[in-house]
Structures
1.
Amino acid sequence: MKKWKLKGFKELGPLLAFVILAVFTAILNPRFLTSFNLQSLGRQIAIFGLLAIGETFVIISGGGAIDLSPGSMVALTGVMVAWLLKQGVDVWLAVLLILAFSLGVGAWHGFFVTKLKVPAFIITLGTMTIARGFAAVITKGWPIIGLPNTFLRIGQADFLKIPVPVWILLVTTLISDFFLRKTVYGKHLRASGGNEIAARFSGVNVDRVRSIAFMISGLLAGLVGIIVAARLSQGQPGVGGMYELYAIASTVIGGTSLGGGEGSIIGAIIGAGIISLLWNALVLLNVSTYWHNVVIGVVIVVAVTLDILRKRLASK
Amino acid sequence: MKKFFLMTVLFVVTVSFALTIGVIGKSVHPYWSQVEEGVKAAGKALGVDTRFFVPQKEDVNAQIQMLEAFIAQKVDGIAIAPSDPTAVIPYVKKALQQGIPVITLDTDSPNSGRYVYIGTDNYAAGYRAGTIMKEILGGKGKVVIGTGSLTAMNSLQRIQGFKDAIAGTNIQIVDILNDEEDGSRAVALAESALNAHPDLDAFFGVYAYNGPSQALVVKNAKKVGKVKIVCFDTTPDILGYVKEGVIQATMGQRPYMMGYLSVTVLYLMKKIGVQNTLALLPKVTVDGKEDYIIDTGVDVVTPQNLNDYLKEMERLGIPIRF
């Protein structure tokens, strides 16, 4: 019981920021609360949120682990799934193939980081460039259009008035949160990130734990690639610019320590919510587009700084 | 020694026999593939060896590196679409000093000393879009503009042209949205805008993907025909929406012609001389200075003339299928 209270407290800061932002926007422009807008916002949160979940696993695993590839992977997998569909591959088979591919890319990162000791920053930076390049190679810049309707539903349809990507996010969040907090793997993950040497001595297979974290991140990037392609009705090589940085920012806003060992899935989703809400609110509040990036950057810095200060005060 | 000299002469003669022309575009994009098609077609027709280069994303530094590489190779002519018109000036001057003719295509760098600019007059094209918007809306309404940049000259000129065309009417621009060339963000912004302005009458899409992003949102919101769309370029997805009547008009630029003409003009400069070539071209006076500009113009594509447009493209050998 006490543990639950503490848990609630940990994500309170970002949650409060999210709520205040939402209320503020809704008061200034009541159209914020239309179902059209909330659905649009939900789809955006799903995109950043899923990437942030993957990033959370990787960052918690410690040892300076970080994944810079998601943004470019979103572009590549989106283009690949569109290409497969154009070749007449069945929708669900195409989706499965892409998920398997992105899982493989995650395993590739894990292998380089754990076995070859290549810094995560470098190997995932490599993928960031390679994936973006391949997306361009496949498409020569042309969007791949004319995708089947069953596929588009993944990104555009609603179920019980809630967009499909939001359902995907909800299910993924529940599974990931359970995975991180209640399973042996989650315990080992946090142990590996918190104190790698101690974890190794107590028999944790740190390499395996870390590799799985990269695989989760890869898989989710592929999932988002599929969602974005379905949302745009096309495979577009130019999407996903800077998404990895938004995902990392969401994760950190949500209370995950960049040093590893500590983090929260729910927090990451709230972080993704704050960034998506900003994109949305700045338009609704008629803020000049010249200021959008300035505001988003300032909010990220303020949110993280306040959270760190709050934690320091709480631990005193 | 004599033999060596002879071989060198032979080598130089054979190498310089086929002219080499380098073309530097802006990014990996359908638009630039069409330019490339035009460049290749002209190269084939004239028997010129063409080198076409684009950076992955807009990157003036990569362009400058390629420009220097072309200068080092002593190519016979260079056409460039500078991502930054001022950054390339010293390198264009360097090429000109070495006797390599340089022209600009798509985007101009007027102070670089380049001989000719071949491309869409973006202000005129934006003005045309504004005029069409005025007709479609009957002179009054609320418009949101979506663009990928608020610093790039082509975006600024199109928007300025559009604004000037609707000046004095009751058409009001309620917001300008910058998605920084991210298609997904363009959709999210169009959704937010449509929601923020329930009485919105039209979107104006400045970059190639803006139109389809807006069309997707308008279609999903079931506001086809209620919210009109005027946009730029003729990618297959745009033409698909034109066919469906979601997009009312699009300004088709002529990238193929830009590529083709660039190679042709550079070829002539080498064959008959720079001044003789310029004498063939339309002369304009800008700020009291004589200049040579070829406006490749735009094709306004509407649901009514779509089929004619497609036939015309097919005839040119660049069929657009969708």
2.
Amino acid sequence: MGLSYKMRLVAVVVVMGIAVAGGLFVKGLVKPASFGVYGHYRADAIEEETLIPIRHATNTSCYTCHPYEARIHKTGLHKTISCEFCHGPWADHVAGNKKIGTLPVKKNKEITTLCLRCHNTEIKARPHEVIKTVAMPEHLASQKVKLTHNCNQCHHVHAPLKYINRAKQITGLGEKKL
Amino acid sequence: MKTDQEKRDFLKKVLNGTIAGSLYLVMPMAALTMGTGDTPQDPKGPDISKLPEQVPGIRGKAYNILEQEFAFVVDITRCIGCGACCVADQQEYNVPEGNYRTWVERYVKGFSDQVYVDAPNGGLDGYQTPRSDIDEWIRDTFFVPKLCNMCKEAPCVQVCPVGATFTTPDGFVLVDHDRCVGCAYCIQACPYSVRYIHPETKTVDKCTWCYHRVRKGLLPACVEVCPTGARKFGSLKDKNSEVYKILKGPGVLTVLKPEMGTWPALYYKGARREVV
């Protein structure tokens, strides 16, 4: 160990230099390309997140091919309801401008269950100034229909008061007395 | 005593030096990239140009990620607990059963000030029956939709050991599924319990406020399907957006767990103090 003090200093500096250079080299190998552009993460992950397929395509896309339902739905009290809530997402129905599947249409008791999801008076947590609710089967009894009736036998599911208003018009029952 | 103090000072200096040095190694390079226009059109997806522009100011130009800010407002006084948001969210991402990116809780407050909270299947099946297990007079009851709070000081981001979860410059807390090692530290850190381990990818997953939709000028799926307008989303850079007007206006807005210092971008309107 006949190295002079100066040489030992040089050796220490050289070793440290090699360590730093090695460290930087390894860092360059393992660090993803966009890491650290905005912060301590891979910036490309932001753009990758935008590539997730869109599965809900708004009522506007439904209306393009279903003008009959659109006309009724747009005028009724249910106009704020999304088609895709009851029928399922657009992406299960269309892909690349081609129909790939049929979306379910609720039938019979399923309809009543679906209606009561929003319109059940029993659920007191519902703000009743936001939604009109009914008690079942009292509503059926008070309207003098069979207790086995489903909601859609009186209410059009897309525009709930469509038939009711029409019936009132014809019979003159709902008109205000002058 | 004096030597102790000197030792302490010396150690402090060394430690500071080490920290500064290691910081220098991981410091970001000043290179800032900007988006180069609309995100590419998915050939199987809907034609974006034909869909309404629900979040104005994003489509048809380069997205400047540094110049955007968004907010989410949940109006508890309008939530009817239909669960449309939960269904839409589950369908948009094919969320595996038993996991929820968003959910709706039912709060019931008795006259004894006892608070009962439940969320059967996260509200995915709606609320068909009232609670039958409460043996007292009910003073107040309401629904509370829950989702990611998009904290400005996100605890989940702070604890992630691999930089797999992060806050984007436009304010979204996202997950890099390529980097996530599934350690679940962020699940423990999140005060709002919005994170879960995806059973297939084994990486963490969470509500993203539908970042992929927002970047195409569409509303998040849950906001899109909400029939009563209980969920509102919009840009704070757009002076005409509903959320901008709500945030600017005099109405009382609260955030969840403000004492945690997370500074959420999700605001609640009409939330009682029991809501956590």
3.
Amino acid sequence: MKTKDAIFARMREILVEVFEVEERNITLEAHLYKDLDFDSLDAVELAVKLGVETGISLQEEELRAIRTIGDAVDIVHYRMNR
Amino acid sequence: MLGKLNLARKWRVVMTGVCFLTFLCGGLILTVTALPLILLLSATPAQRERRTLLLIHYAFKFFMRYMQMLNPISSFQVHGLEHVSSRKGALFIANHPTLIDVVAIMSSLPNCQCIVKKSLLQNVYFGRLLQAAGYVAHDSSEFMAECAQRLHAGFSLLIFPEGTRSPLEGLQRFSRGAAQIALRTGAAVVPVAVTCEPPTLHKGDPWYTVPSRPIDLTLRFFPSLEIPTAVTEKKHLPLQARALTSYWENFFRQELHMAKSSALDPSEENISEAAGTPLPIGGPLQ
């Protein structure tokens, strides 16, 4: 799960299963808070789920900087390949 | 007649101003008199919090009377307090039609902390009191842990799930923080329906826009709400929080709607309640 595509694919699965987001709404540009009805606790939950699988734990500032799904993919990708 | 009404209203503007001033000065005075004593004499944070909460509770009790005396408030009624009197570690959820409702609720609950904006804890007039009382900032990173700790220590929490004051009609969408607290801590959830007639002190209302007559403020405490199985059978916490939040939202919509229609169509119960209400203590014109 080192490529951005793989990370995005896994994130899509999590969003569908844990948050019941509709598949067609899941794009790299989708805004978590505006488009997907996230709140900050949801973002933490998403980060925890991703963290369990990737072994990275996002810092609070990193989490706060995430706006879109693409942001989340980028930051996880960056952290995994650092 | 109209002129008289206008004068009465002007008088209420003045009295409302006096109430605001009293509130702010009261906050300052308690901060420099009672609060240092509490800080000095309390051995543990829990003790300090309990004492400061009691101070706020009685100050607000006094302030509710004061507002009735000076006439911005015509009547203040509390129903269902028997559901809460012996409760510890409960989560109170309330709608938020007016600035005054938090004072009214706190004047009814001696051992309850409130979830507020961080900026309120830094307020010059009463921020230190709220800090010493252990109020929780919802925009702090330790928010969830702090809530759990308070409930565990036997304090109750009051939260306005709308996050800000209600619109003129109905409710803002509930944010899901309250549901997250309930789901994570298992605290008993007690709804408090607030009605304020006529509406006053909305978000953005300047203090001097007083309503057409002194307000009737009513708090209705309900028996605690079970978490429905439709919520608990969902597998993931985010989904549970969504389901529980919309369940609560519906509950409030229904209760407020019923309160409104029974107010428009006075039933026997309402008439007897109104008869039991003391006449407002008059302004200078009565």
